[in-house]
Amino acid sequence: MNQPQAILVLPHLRVQNANAISSPLTHGFPSITAFTGLMWALQRKLAQAQIPLQLLSVGVVCHHHQEQVSQGYVRSFHLSRNPVDKDGSTAAIVEEGRMHLQVSLVFSVAEQLAPGAVSALVQGGEAHMEDWARQIGELASQMRVAGGSLLPSRPVPGKKVSPWMALVPEDPEECAKAFRRWRRQWLPGFALVARDGLLAERLAHLRKSHPDASLLDAWLHAARFNHEPVQNDKPPTDGKVQWRDPLRLKGSGWTVPIPVGYAALSPRHAAGAVANARDMATPLRFVESVYSLGEWVSPHRLSSLQQLLWHAEADEAQGLYRCRNAYQPPSKPQTDAAESGEWVEEDDYVDD
User: Fold this and answer.
1) How many domains, the chain?
2) 60: which of 19, 102, 223, 340 is 20 to 30 A away, CA to CA?
3) In the listed set 174, 194, 214, which residue is the last one of a domain according to the structure?
4) Is this prediction's pTM over 0.90?
């Protein structure tokens, strides 16, 4: 993958009726593949508009979300009623999950140069970036985001609501300083990052008591709360037993089950070989969802731009098409939180 030369930010996008069902097993926020798909669709529009930029990866920061569901212990989606059948009976309903979102999308960008051409990001870069950001904003306003419609942005006090671009400094210290400045624009909000390591930890924990536990068992176990009675040396004076999830203590993070891509179920079929395919000019392969764990992190907890961004990765040999993220959690305090039940905050916000 090319090294990013700049970032493109589409801030505070208001999305109406986005797809809330991210996979057959998860709901509550669009899949990260919906945003990588948006990135590729936007890339094609840039080519048509002769904007010499390549979108490399995408980061998602959610500022507000409202899933269209009924409230209560058991929730159900608000569904539209289909017209009745010709005999007057109620037509079948295809369940559709919808939600309203306010998100900021951050793309890493590289310039596509013809042989011998001079980079516009170097020669008068500010003027070119301002013009490109304006054009890209106009193109994006005509597109769907995770199946939802984009509404005009509303002014946000102290925040940029118009698309903007900025160069990524080559010096690591300058890059870190610039990222600290950029991430303030994404507060308040939460960025979705990958936590694949938590799945391995959960599997190791389960196999201590269930040696035959699988990755699916670990994923399902991590996707829910598993309350257990707290064991104390002294019985409680009021006779009440405390319950808690020993693996979800205070400060352990807002972790969620997420789909991260697709795994092949069939060999690759030639274009037009499968009847009723959506695109008869593109090779086709049947796939199923691939799952992992993610975490919602406040942008000020991220230490670099790469920790925010997701990029697509394809392994044709294994039939694996998935999204990757380079987030690394901060080191845990010396006291083991799982044993003590406490958490020490060690990542203070640094202001320039």
Assistant:
1) 2
2) 223
3) 194
4) no
